[in-house]
Amino acid sequence: MNEMKKILLPLIVFVISSLSLTAFEITLAGGARMDIPEAWELDENDPSVPSWYSPDRRSAAEVMLWAPGTWETLDNFIESARPEGAEGDVFVFQCWDGEAALATWTFPGSGGIFRGWFLFIVRSGPDVRVSAIAAEEDFSERQPFLLSVLDSYIPGENWRLTPGAVSTFLEVTGESEKEAVYVPFENNTLSWEQSSAGNQASQDVIEREALILSAYASVPELFYPAWERYYRLIYRDSYSRLEPLAEALQNGPLPRNTSDSRVVSERILSWLQGFSYGSTDRFSDLLSPSAACSSQTGDCDSLSLVLLILMDYYGVDGLLLLSQQAHHALTGLDVSGEGMRYTEGENSWIVAELTSNLPLGVLPDRLTVVSDWFGIKLLSKE
Fold first, then answer.
1. Is 22 exposed, middle or buried (0-12, 13-18, 19+ CB in 10 A)?
2. CB neighbours of 158 closer than 8 A, spacing ≥ 6?
C-alpha cells in the first residue's frame, strides 16, 4: 500500500489545482483537455482525480494524470493501473509522437461487474490513463459514449486539431497505403495524397457521434449543446486530414501570402458549390470532410466544415451556422465586403451557402426568412 501511495503522489500534486471549465472543453493539468458528453456530471468528491457520471450514473469516466516520464515503460504503466481482476485485450499503437494503448476490460467492482475502455499514453504530454466504464449489461448500448470520452482527450495545445486516440487507432490499423487524389480547381488540377483508412476512421467517428447526438433529440435544452459538441469533434478529427489539400491550394492557385481573404473565400466557395450533392446512406447522413473533397460530393454541413477548415488555413476566422427549422447549415466567414451577415453582439460574419451556386453573402430566398440560425465557434489553428 505504501508503494502504491508513492506511485500516486505525483498524480495528486499534478492535478489538484489545475481543473478548469472552458466554453468548449475541460482543461486539465499540463494543458491536457477533455470534451465530456453533455449532461455528464463532474464528481467533486475527489478533486485529485477528475471523474464524471452519466445522468443515470450507470456510466462513468475518469482521468488520471502523472507528470511526464513517470512511467518507464508503457507495459509497466498498464499493469500498474489495471483494475484488480480485469480481463480483456490491450492494443498498443503510436499516437501524438508517443506510445499509446487501448484496453477493453471486464472487471468486478462495488455493486457488480463492469466493462469499459481504457486509454494509456506515455511520452506525449502527461502520462495519462483515461477510463470510461459502464455496468456490463449496459456496455454495448453505452459503447459510443465510452469511446467518445476517450477520443475527446488531447494531451496539449500542439495536438488540439488532430484526431483523437480512438480515431488514430482505427486509422493505423487500417489500410496503410496512401492514395493520390486529382481534383479540378478552376483551370488547374489539385493533387494531394490521402489515407483511405483515415477517411474511414473519420466516417466512423461521425457515425459514433451521430448515435450519441440522437440520444439528446427529445431534450431541447441538451440537444443544442450536444449538437455543438458533435461538430466540434468532427471538425477536430477532420482538420489535419485536410492539410494536404490546403497545402496544394497554397502551393498552387491560391498562395496564402499573396491572396486577398475575400477572393480566397469566393474562389474556394465557388469550387465547393460545384461538387455534386450527396450524403451517406448510414445513420448520420454526413460524409466526412476529407472524403467529400476527394469524391467532390457533399451536403450542406460536410461542405460547410470543409470551407471553415480550409479558410482557417488561410487565417480566416469563421462560424458554422445551423438551423433546425431549415434543417440546413451555412458558413459564416470573418471577411470584409458586401453581403448578408450573421451577427452576434458587435461581431458579424458574411454568410456562405454551399449547396446553391450563389455568390458569397447571398442566400436562397427560402433561407432569408429562417429565424433560428445559431453559430458554433470551432477551434482555430492560430
1. exposed
2. none
Q: What average pLDDT does range 362-375 have in this prediction?
A: 94
Q: pLDDT tens across 12-69, in order?
A: 333 333 344 444 568 887 788 999 999 999 887 877 788 999 999 899 999 999 999 9
Cell representation of residue 91: 492494443
Cell output for 282? 448510414
User: Cα separation of 132 and 135, whole Å?
Assistant: 11
Q: What is the pTM of this model?
A: 0.91
- Give CB contacts under 8 A, 24+ apart, made by 89-97: 91/169, 91/173, 93/168, 93/169, 93/172, 93/173, 94/172, 95/121, 95/124, 95/165, 95/168, 95/169, 96/121, 96/124, 96/125, 96/155, 96/159, 96/162, 96/165, 96/168, 97/123, 97/124
Contact between 101 and 76 (Cβ < 8 Å) = no
Tens digits of residue pLDDT in 128-158: 999 999 999 999 999 999 999 999 999 988 9
Cα distance between residue 95 and residue 92, in whole Å = 10
Q: At what angle do helices 220-239 and 300-313 cross, to 10 degrees?
A: 50
CB 305 within 8 A of CB 230: no
pLDDT one-digit tens code per residue, 195-252 = 999 999 999 999 999 999 999 999 989 999 999 999 999 999 999 999 999 999 999 9
190: left (phi over 0), alpha (psi -120 to 50) or beta: beta
DSSP per position, 11-48: HHHHHTT--EE-SS-EE-GGG-EE-PPTTPEEE-S-TT
Asked if pLDDT for residue 94 goes beyond 60, the answer is: yes
3-state secondary structure of 153: coil
Q: Which domains does the chain have, with CATH numbers?
A: 2-171 (3.40.1000.10), 178-377 (3.10.620)
Q: Are 116 and 137 in contact (CB under 8 A)?
A: no
The DSSP bridge pattern shows strands 276-277 and 297-298 to be: parallel
Lowest-confidence region among 77-81, 158-162, 262-266, 280-284: 280-284
